[in-house]
Amino acid sequence: MAFKKLINNKLLSLFSVLMLSGSMVMAADATSPAAATGAENAPSVWTGVSYYVLLFLVVCFIVGIIGKILQVYDLTLKLQRKKGIKWNNVMGTLMLAFLVIGMVGVYWSFSVQGSMILPEAASLHGKTIDSMFWTTFGITVIVFISTQILLFTFAFIYRGSDKRKAYYLPHDNTIEKIWTIAPAIVLTVLVIFGFFTWRSITNTVDAKGEPASINIDITGHQFAWEIRYPGRDGKLGMKNYKLVSGTNKVGVDFKDRNSLDDLAADTIVLPVNKSIRLNIIAQDVIHSVYMPNFRLQMNAVPGLPTFFKFTPTITTAEMRNRLDKSDFEYHLYCNKICGGSHYNMWRIVRVVTEAEYQDWLSHQKPYLSDQLKQELKMVDANAPQQDGVKNRLALNN
Amino acid sequence: MSTLAVHDHHDGVEHHDHDHGHHHKETFISKYIFSMDHKMIAKQFLITGIIMAVIAMILSILFRIQLAYPDKAFPFLETILGRFAPGGRLDANFYLSLVTIHGTIMVFFVLTAGLSGTFSNLLIPFQLGARDMASPFMNMLSYWMFFTASVIMLASFFVQKGPAGGGWTIYPPLSALPKAMPGSAEGMTLWLISMVLFVASQLMGGINYVSTVLNMRTKGMDLWKMPLTIWAFFLTAILGILAFPVLVAGVVLLVFDRSFGTSFYLSEIVVQGQVMNYEGGSPILFQHLFWFLGHPEVYIVIMPAMGIASEVMSVNSRKPIFGYHAMVYSLIGITVLSFIVWGHHMFVTGMNPFLGGVFMITTLIIAVPSAVKTFNWLATLWRGNIRFTPGMLFAIGLVSFFISGGITGIFLGNAALDINLHDTYFVVAHFHLVMGSAAIFGMLAGVYHWFPKMFGRMMDEKLGYLHFWLTFIGAYLVFFPMHFMGLDGVPRRYYAFTEIESLKQWLSVNTFITWAAIMSALAQVAFLFNFFYSIFFGKKATQNPWNSTTLEWTTPVERIHGNWPGEIPTVYRWPYDYSKPGAEEDFIPQTTPYSQTMTSNLPHDFEDNPTGLTQYNEWLKTQKVQEEVK
């Protein structure tokens, strides 16, 4: 009786799955000519899809059949007055199998995909971040592997059976104290190292006697980065967002004399082993300056200028040699969702020797382009005026 | 005080029951739609949650297809999505909308409302011995607010410019400037309205949960006799009540910025060459407000799952949960600490770096209670007699995910490491394992375990096994490789990885992940079929199918209004007396007094009950005398 009912139920279930999915396919077929704009395209739109739907139905069917076979097998066992399939054993064994296969998979992943990660750090602080990373990795990977092994082997060893009874163990204060204090100590160590690493990277006032960092302005807007270098005076001129226009893209205020010799660039070129200070700003929405090779990231926030100070240590040419890739480039890209073309907002970063850097710098166009000069007639008018001011100041001295 | 309240309510309900028989007839509408019965509301939350989960899952498959085949056109996409997929290729803005709505639905509508809403409503009255929630009407209102919020959220697919697209964190100025992207136009307005309703729903639910737990426990059910599920729901509700209003504050200010020209979050903005008049605001302010909710939110998501896993693992290991007190204290620790760690989402936003250092310390401290919970789960399995029901499998899966995903939190919580990992796929892998997969596994464990209580029928075990293994393996295949992508600097929320040279090497991995995701998604068909089929045609359940000790299994299978036909049972012991030595069976229900289980009592059982202890000692003496006589 029960046997018959089970089979009926199962068949019914399989049948209804087929019916449901079948009607779905039909519905799709019915709507496609109406929905598609080009009527002649309509059939081809759904051929691929219906192929996969059919494939899925076949899989469902096979699963149903396997389910049926298992059920029949289980029932024959019971008819022979044996116990049915011991699902606890099956699941326990699968747990163990998952552990073994999973660990092999983890090993494969670490060795194959793991070799693709963390491109060599090309900045001073990047090295400290990497050593922090590998310390943390070393500790956590031990915890990861040992706890997963415990979890799945316990599941296997203590799989249920009618013969055993579980061990009544509501608590054990000693061991609980141990595994509260042990992670606390490990985490304290990580916190202390992490805290000092973080402070050393971010707490970056130029030390006394140290030559000042090279200031570079980088401004994000949808969907590009504008780059501005200081001119010979080494100082960037002031900006005012109200002055932004088609030609004055970042809104440089030319009333500030420092701005007159500023340079516009379309690639970030950095001298190797020199301290660089990126001044980061956004015009419209939040962007993020992300340069993974230098382990550098800082958000660009409208109305809140941020900066990141770092020292590149490997030139692009040297990196090309090391990687044996002649077309290798460092990249800077946006890493904070900023709109439709977020995925395509990047600049090339090139690290060069000091001599190459000076040479490159001398070839850059001034930010104050001729067009801009024309547009801001007041600049021409202002320039002599400002000279006048300077003269007067000089006289006063 | 609390016993008094229980008493009053108890009388009241009895009167109600009395009336009930005479002249209150339930209509279809009052029974299935505007129901005030906690069991029905739980089912409403569950089924709405499942539907939302399926929708959000389909959205994720759509954008996974884009990531796997960025250069291919799929004509059927145009047929389905129309202008959002011109020429069979997803529009870049619509891609971001998909990501946004996937995240929003999964975090809020599935793992907050679907999880807490279902199991808090179902189990708080059941496991505490109450006839219903403190305010059944407010409970009903909570569901319908949630339902309205869901409808509005989905309706945003039908506005001209598409749904909100600024990511589920909707950082202004992107979300505040309709010009900045199509997803910040009407779609964002609907998102904000939906979230305000959602928060209102959560507050009504939360207040109800807390007041029910505090006031309506049955006789003998003191706080330390509550199952861990109830502790988890209780603390989750407190978290929600304290954290959600802050989101509303943030959202209302954003509405002001969007619609009334204020500058709370906006300053010095030039959109597409046009200088705007906003001055003096701070985009960082929104991030503070958002994450003040947002971080507790991830614990709102995971704590109920933890509670469910603790309960399911104890029942099916036939063993008391190891370190019950430590489990409760670690939940309390997580609750408190979760309010002071929000800054770890903002290490590289330009927040003062010193503040970042402080948030890093608090963040890594929160790993300690999490570790304690994991070890206690492992100890619960140790020397158990594990019965692999589908619920148990999912609970074990939760522990595995929680370990894998939790460990990467130690990297991300470290401000120095976060510089390189922030907003990369490493983050995506981390939170999808630790709060996505782990929480959804907790929810599924709960569904399989309490299905008989909800529908009076059993789900099919074999299909449950199939569902578990495909989902478990699939989730690891999807999220494990993402760690490596993130470590190579692959950013999240990218429409395609074809534009930047160094990201191209991950294209094949992306294709692999997509196929793994499709496999896991199809595995859910096994669950959906099993769930809906079993509601109507499943095997009839017995009253206590899992041989469990807790109160919900003392109610009749028929699920009557008021839960217990007669008096509410009294509770005498903690909920985890499994396999107690000396007991006849391997479980002793909470309703069994110690006087009936003399052979299995332990001195420990009478810690706060001196009279019980003297009686126990006297009984021991008589036993000894008897033995000597023999």
What does this structure look like?
- The complex is a heterodimer of chains A (about 400) and B (about 625).
- Chain A has about 400 residues and is α+β, with helices and mostly antiparallel strands.
- Helix content of chain A is about 50%, strand content about 15%.
- In chain A, strand 6 and strand 7 form a beta hairpin.
- In chain A, helix 1 packs antiparallel against helix 2 (about 40-80) and helix 4 runs antiparallel to helix 5.
- The longest helix of chain A is centred in the N-terminal third of the chain and has 38 residues, at about 40-80.
- Residues about 1-5, about 20-40 and about 380-395 of chain A have low confidence and may be disordered.
- The interface between A and B is large, with 125 and 130 residues.
Question: Any chance you could write out the topology, listing elements then pairs?
Answer:
The complex is a heterodimer of chains A (397) and B (630).
Chain A: H1 2-35, H2 42-79, H3 87-112, H4 124-157, H5 173-202, E1 214-221, E2 224-229, E3 263-265, E4 268-271, E5 276-282, E6 287-291, E7 296-300, E8 306-310, H6 316-323, E9 330-334, E10 346-352, H7 354-362, E11 365-366, H8 370-375, H9 377-396
Parallel strand pairs in A: 1-5, 4-10
Antiparallel strand pairs in A: 1-2, 2-3, 3-11, 5-8, 6-7, 6-9, 9-10
Chain B: H1 2-23, H2 28-33, H3 38-68, H4 75-81, H5 92-128, H6 136-155, H7 186-215, H8 228-259, E1 270-271, E2 274-275, H9 283-317, H10 324-337, H11 353-365, H12 367-381, H13 390-412, H14 415-421, H15 425-455, E3 457-458, H16 461-487, H17 507-537, E4 539-540, H18 610-629
Antiparallel strand pairs in B: 1-2, 3-4
Helix pairs in contact in B: 3-5, 3-6, 3-17, 5-6, 5-7, 5-8, 5-9, 5-15, 6-7, 7-8, 8-9, 8-10, 9-13, 9-15, 10-12, 12-13, 13-15, 13-16, 15-16, 16-17
Cofactor (chain A): Cu cation
Function (chain A): Subunits I and II form the functional core of the enzyme complex. Electrons originating in cytochrome c are transferred via heme a and Cu(A) to the binuclear center formed by heme a3 and Cu(B).
Pfam family, one (chain A): COX2_TM
